Amino acid sequence: MTKLTLENFLIQDYSAQTVKSYLFAINHFLKMNPKAKRYKFNNIVEYMEEIAEQQPNRKYRVVILSAIKKYYDYLVMSGYRTDHPCKRLNIKVNSNQAIQVQDLFSSEELQLLMTRENRYQNLDTRNTVLLSLLIYQGLTSDEIIRLTVKDVDLDAGTIYIKASRNLKNRKLELLSKQIILFSKYINEIRPLMLRSTTDKLIITKLGKSIAVNSIHAMIEPLKPLFPDKNLNPKTIRMSVIYNWLNEQKLALEQVQALAGHKWPGTTEKYLKVDSLQQRELINKFFPI
Questions:
Q1: Is 261 strand, coil or helix?
Q2: What is the Cα–Cα distance from 268 to 163, expressed in whole angstroms?
Q3: Mean pLDDT computed over 251-269
Q4: Proportion of the chain above pLDDT 90, given as a percent
Q5: pLDDT tens digits for range 18-57
Q6: Rounded Cα gap, residues 18 and 32, in angstroms
Q7: CA 188, CA 122: separation in Å to the nearest integer?
Q8: E-state strands within 142-252
Q9: Beta bridge partner(s), residue 209
Q10: Helix or strand or coil: residue 33?
Q11: Could you read off the pLDDT of 155-212 as tens digits, one per residue?
Q12: Which has fewest Cβ within 10 Å: 41, 109, 135, 178?
C-alpha cells in the first residue's frame, strides 16, 4: 500500500493554493525545528511566540499555526504519534471591520439560487444539497468539503459540522425539505456517481471528493442573478448570519452557536442596531 504523503494528505481537504501555503509554512517550521516530530505543547507555544515577534499580522500567524496543526494531524494519521501537541492552541484574531450590508443578500434572494438547473441530472440533486448547506446552515466551503456521509443523521434530521481552525464544531438541524433531498442524494444519486472509495458527502460528477475551488466554480454561473453584488460562498454565509440576526431576530448567543463563532464579538458585528443597543451589547460581552 502506497504511503500517503503530507502533500496528498493536505490535498484531500484544501485547495491547491492553501496546500502550497501550508507546505511552505510547515517546511519552514521543520527547518527551524529539526526535532519538531517530538515537540510538546510548550515547544510550539515558544515557536509561535517567536513568530509573533517577527510577524505582527495576527491573521498570518493563524495560517502558520493552522499549517502546523495539519502537520501533527498527519503525524497522528500516519502513526508517528498518538497525541496531538497543539490541537487546542488558538490565536484570537480581533477584527473591527464593519459588515457591508449593501453587499449581502436577503433570504428571498438566496432562495433564487435553488432554482438552478444542470445538464447532468445527478448534479441537480447534488448541487441543491450543496446550495442548501450554504443558504440554510451557512456553512463555509471548507466545512462542506470535509463533510462525510456519516455526519448526516437522517433519522434525527441533523448534520454534524467538524471544528476547523477558526470555527467550533456544532450539530445543526436540517429543514424538513432538506431531509427528503438528502435522503434521495445519499441513497440514490451519490451511489450512482461514485467512481472511487470515499466517505465524503459531496462528490464531483466524476465520483471523487469535491474541492473548494469546485464549489466556487459551481457558484460562478449564478453570478448574473446579482450583477451588482459579489456572489460567492463567503458572502452567502455572511448573508445567512446577518439574516438570522436581523430578519429572524434570533438571539445573539444562538446565532453564535449556529455559525460556530468562537467569540461573541465576531457575531455581534452582524447586528444592525442603534448606538444604545450597541453599547449594551459591548458592555454585556466585553465589560470594562
A1: strand
A2: 21
A3: 87
A4: 49
A5: 888 889 999 999 999 999 999 999 899 889 888 888 777 7
A6: 21
A7: 9
A8: 152-153, 158-161, 170-173
A9: 203
A10: coil
A11: 999 999 998 878 899 999 999 999 999 999 999 999 999 988 899 999 998 888 898 9
A12: 41
The pLDDT score that the predictor gives to residue 287 is 47
Query: Between the CA of residue 36 and those of 30, 33, 80, what are the distances in Å?
Result: 6, 5, 12
The pairing of beta strand 170-173 with beta strand 158-161? antiparallel
For residue 181, give the nearest of 107, 109, 127, 141 by alpha carbon. Answer: 127
What DSSP string runs through 187-204?
IIIHHHH--S---BSSB-
Diameter of the chain measured on Cα atoms: 63
> Which sign does the torsion angle of CA 94, 98, 103, 108 carry?
positive
Number of Cβ within 10 Å of residue 236's Cβ equals 24
> Residue 75 and residue 84: Cα distance in Å, rounded?
8
Question: Using H for helix, E for strand and C for coil, what is the string for 70-132?
Answer: HHHHHHHHHCCCCCCCCCCCCCCCCCCCCCCHHHCCCHHHHHHHHHCCCCCHHHHHHHHHHHH
Distance CA 161, CA 59 (A): 23
Q: What angle do CA 85, 89, 90 make, to 5 degrees?
A: 155
Sheet containing 170-173: give its strands across.
152-153, 158-161, 170-173
| Cell of residue 72, nine digits | 501533527
Return phi, psi of residue 88, to 5°.
Answer: -95, 5
